Structure formats: C-alpha cells, structure tokens
Amino acid sequence: MTDVLRIDLETFSSVDLKKSGVYRYVESPDFEILLFGYAYGDDPVQVIDLTAFEELPERVAHDLTDPHVIKKAWNAAFERTAIAKHFGIKCDPLQWRCTMVHAQYLGLPASLDQAGKVLGVSIQKDAKGKNLIKYFSVPCKPTKTNGGRTRNHPHHDPEKWSEYISYNRQDVEAEREVDRKLSRFPVPDGEWRLWALDQRINDRGVQLDPVLVEQAIACDAQYEARLLEEAKELTGLDNPNSLPQLKAWLAERGLETPDGLSKDFMPALLDAAPDEETRRALELRQEMGKTSVDKYNAMARTICADERAHGLLQFYGANRTGRWAGRLIQVQNLPQNKIEDLALAREILRSGDFELLEMLFGAPPFVLSQLIRTAFIPAEGSKFFVADFSAIEARVIAWLADENWVLDVFRSHGKIYEATAANMFGVPFETITKGHANYRFRASGKVATLACGFQGGPNAIAAMDSKKEIDPDEYPALVKQWRAANPNIVQLWYAAERAAVTAVKEKRTVKLAHGVQYRPEAGMLFADLPSGRSLCYVKPRIKRDAQFDKDALEFEGQDQQTKKWTTHRTYGGRLVENLVQAIARDCLAENMLRLDDEGYQIAMHIHDEVVSEEPTWTARHYAHVVQIMSRPIKWAPGLPLTAAGYDCDFYQKD
C-alpha cells in the first residue's frame, strides 16, 4: 500500500502571491518556508518550525522525492513549487495529489474553508488564520510603534506565533478530513496524469518579451498624460478625471448628465453636446477610459528571472465542466489581432518611437491591445506552433445528438455556416458564396450556429450578432428556422433534462447518448462522460417550475461572480452546454497527452488551441501535429475532428 504524506506550509515572501503567482513568489530572495505541517495517514499532525532551525525528519526529507509516497496538499501546486525552491529538489507532480482539484472535480469550492463547510467536516480552518498570515507571512508597513521594521518575526509576538503553529496544524487536519469525505468519489487516474502534465506546462511557462512589455506600459503612460494635459487646458479643471468636477463643468455648459458618463451613455451625450469644446471634452473622457494596460502590467508582475511567465493556467478552474481557467495574465481572454503588419508594429513599439507607432497604426489604446498576444514569444532559436480544432463545440453537439447532416458537413467540406444557412433558408448550398445574392444568408447561418446550440433564443442571437449584420426583427424567426433545421439537437435538450430529472426523482441511472448517463449517488448527481470522467451536481433536488409547469432540476454550487455557495436552477440547454464543453475539453486533454508523448513542448493552451514551443520546425512537424490532433478518439467513435495550425515567431491569431 502506498504511503500518503499530507503537507501544509506557511511561508513568507515580499512578492504579492495573488498578483504575481507562486513562481515569482518563491523566486523572491526573501522567500522562505516558515512552518512545515505534515502527517502520515491517520498519525497526529507534526509541525516543523524552520524559523527555529528545526530540520525535517529524515523520513520526511526522503519521502519528498520517493515515488512510492504520495504527497497530498490543498492546492498542491503551491506546496510542490515552494518545497522544490526552498529545499532545492525536484517535486515530480506524478507523486502528488491535489485535494483542491479533487473538490473541484466534485463541484465543490476551491477554498478549503468553504469546501469544509459544504461537506460538514468536524474540523475546519481557523478563522483567525487570515490575520496570522497577514502578520507573519506578508510584509508590514514600517511605523514608529514597530520600530520601522518591514516584517514581523516570531519573536515580535510569541503568543501569535504559537497560534500560527496551531493554525498550520489545523490546516493539515482540515485537509485530511475533507479528503476523507471526498475519497468516496475518487478522481480517475487519467485526470491525475493530466494534472501532472498541467503542472509541467506551468513549470515550463511561456517566454515574454520584457522590452515590449516595458515599452507598452511607457507608451500608455505617455498617451494618458497627453490626454490629461489637453483635458486640463480645455476645461480648466484641476482633475478632469474627477467625475463630479467634469459633470459640474458639463452642466455649466448646458449638458446635464444624470446617468453618469459611462460608455453606454457616451454616444447620446456626444450627440447632445452644445459645442465643439464640450464634445471634445467628452471625447477625451472616452479616450482616457480606453487607456488600459492591465495585461501588460500583469506580465510585468508575473515575469520571472528566466523571462518566462509561469502558472498561467488553473487545472479544473471551471468546475462545472472541468475546463482550464486563466490566471494572472488571463490568456483565455486575450484580444484578437487584426492589424496586418504586426511585426512592424511591435518593432516600432519596442524601439520606443511612440509617435511613429501612432502615425502608422492609430491611437495607442487600439495598437497596444492588438499587440498583447505578441508579447508572448518562443525562446531564442525556437518557433511557436499553434494548432487548434475547427468548430469543436458544433462538432461535439452534433455527434452527441446524432444530427447527421451536420456531421456529414464536417466530414466533407466543413463549411458549417454556409450549410446551416442553406438548410435554414432553403437555398442551394453552392450559391452561398461571395458575389452571389444568397451570400447575405451566411451571416445569419453563422450567428444562429453560434447562438442557438444550447437552447439560446433571440437574446442569444442579439449577443452573438456583434457586427449588427441582422435586422433585430428577424431574431425570433432565425431561432425557429435554426431549430427546424436541427431537430435532433433540439430533442437532445429535452432528453438531457428528462434524464437528469428522472435520475434524481427515481434515484436510478438514466442513459442519454454516446456513453453519457446521469447517475445519482449519495447526495450527488453525476453526469458520466464517454471519456470516463464525470461532471458533478451537488445536492440535486427537483422543484416545480411554475412558469413552464414542469419539474426542474436544482443543485448547489458556487456563483461564478460572487463566489458564494448558492442554489442554481438548470434546464436542458444548459445541461447540454455542460456536456458539450466538457467533452470538448476532454478532446483537448486527450490530444495534449498525445502531443506530450510525442515530445512536443506545450507552452500554453487556450480553449481549443495548443501552443507548442519547438527548437526545430519543419513541414513534417507541421503535418505531424495536425495529424495527431485529427486522429479519432477511442472513446468518441464517429466524432469527426479536424485541426489546423501555423507557426509564428511571436504569438498571434492567424
């Protein structure tokens, strides 16, 4: 039987952990582990006080690298990274298990305290812990009362230090109790293998261009100062950025702004401006609102000594589907690049010639946004290869619903927007081409495909019609036409809802399609996926939906905005959305493992896209990667996957 060593650390670093991430945190010269709490199995928890020059027991020191001993921790990514740095050892992620990931796999919060409360464990985190962490593990402001020191050591408050040791001990106990509750529903071995790959990808990181990052921040600061100076001269105000001051100035000129100066109201205010000076003041306000270099500032905070950013992806960050979430720089929501000569623009920015940059490419907020992706670069002598799936969610939902005409499209020409438009409007497919009158239907086919798959209605069409290519009066008709063209997908929504509701009401497993089934067990509802993993809905129950006069499924989960634990109500389209995004995630995961097995170095991945960093690159490699990602998946027979890719000297959207 494999031994289990549970670990919890208390540490110090002058680097802000939340803003800069664990890799930059442990790289700080003043980083150190203060307390090392541990326990084997059910043994009493021990705490080693490293500040008192206590040493780890020989067994513990040995077991940190022993492959026969599983190391467990809440948010194990932190513990393994900190231990590797402090002790100068390699912490193989294959030897670790993360209790936080286990909790997220089961739809529980990513907070030990909150997860413990939901599970009702007898031992929970000490509420005093936050204050103790702030006192000992975070730099303090120098004051006269503390003698001007920037850090609190144990001897500054021995009583608090004793409490901190107790807190560390209790964290190990709380993690152990939570883990016992979770152990009834184990995480599949394949997910731990995938987590280990995720850890290696985060350890490897992705290189940033520090010169470009620095110049982008400087360019933004210069432009903002220029706008502010113009606004001061125009209005005579001390601070034109002050909303009350600017509103008063506008009122004096006859322009009342009862609804504020948000971007939603700005077009109407610009139209109502009584003169050119007032209009220009509003334009300056609007332009200053665009000057944002949050991504570049995040890069500057995150970049490590090796000029790479690490820890940008959170495994199982979206616990409703198991998809990754972006962290620190948030690579999952990078702006697209649309200017043609990116290479020239980034070189001008790097040179510091901001005037030329603006002259050639436009206002700095726009240009800097366009260049965010290009701040990610391969190591010297290497190239990026970006490969992604084509219309992965449209393929998965058609496969799951047996919408065969859609699958046939993907098995042949792949032009799903044109084919959908042809089906919706009853026009020949071959006529939906540029130059033909029927090409006007393509926009409707595209928007409907993107908006309607998960039971979306006119509001979903409106949200997806970002270019405003469709008359809003046509939205309801488009929804009906799309549904008429995709009857099996429509039936899938209702079948998924019936299956989930029946499983909870009748306490039995109900099969859906292609290996998907809903299975109730011990206060959970599992949606078993064809890959072998499951989605989890906590404490499911049936409540009558008076609006639609039917039984509806409710469950408990974390609100994505407030992070509070609350009740959620779901329906067929949302259940199908969870299934489709989860299966698409598993397709990506399967191919990441394949690419890793073939020796490709994954630097990062975004949604359905993998970015590998390769020192040698040939047409053969290109064909090989695309071929790997287009291979059939054993657990999804009949799912047509197609990948495409391109190489680049800096990250960009092709």
TrEMBL record:
Its EC number is 2.7.7.7. It comes from the Bacteria. Pfam families: DNA_pol_A (PF00476). InterPro entries: DNA-dir_DNA_pol_A_palm_dom (IPR001098), DNA/RNA_pol_sf (IPR043502), DNA_polymerase_A (IPR002298), RNaseH-like_sf (IPR012337). Keywords: DNA replication. GO terms for molecular function: DNA binding; DNA-directed DNA polymerase activity. SMART domains: POLAc. Residues 369-618 form the DNA-directed DNA polymerase family A palm domain. The lineage of its organism: Bacteria, Bacillati, Bacillota, Bacilli, Bacillales. It catalyses: DNA(n) + a 2'-deoxyribonucleoside 5'-triphosphate = DNA(n+1) + diphosphate. One of its GO terms (biological process) is DNA-templated DNA replication. This is DNA-directed DNA polymerase. It is an enzyme of class 2 (transferase).
